[in-house]
Amino acid sequence: MRKYPHTIHYRGVGSKITEGIRKSNARKIDTLSNIRFYECPGSAVPALVMSVLRVVFLCVETKSWPFPGGMMEQPDWFIELYVMAKNG
Q: Considering the entire predicted model, what is its pTM?
């Protein structure tokens, strides 16, 4: 039996993840049973995703919409992110 049974070992993916953690110098945050949690390296989140999240949080803070019209005219994807950001 493997020491960490929840580690991904599908076609060498586990070793790539381990190598990525080592290269990024990510700190281990916590453990839950035999599952290890590491901080998320900044490179894991694409710049476009970060830009969209900034817009969503700005809209929540300013109580405004990024597209013309009211709430019903906003794209579904934006409303879903808005609700998640607002409700934390």
A: 0.51
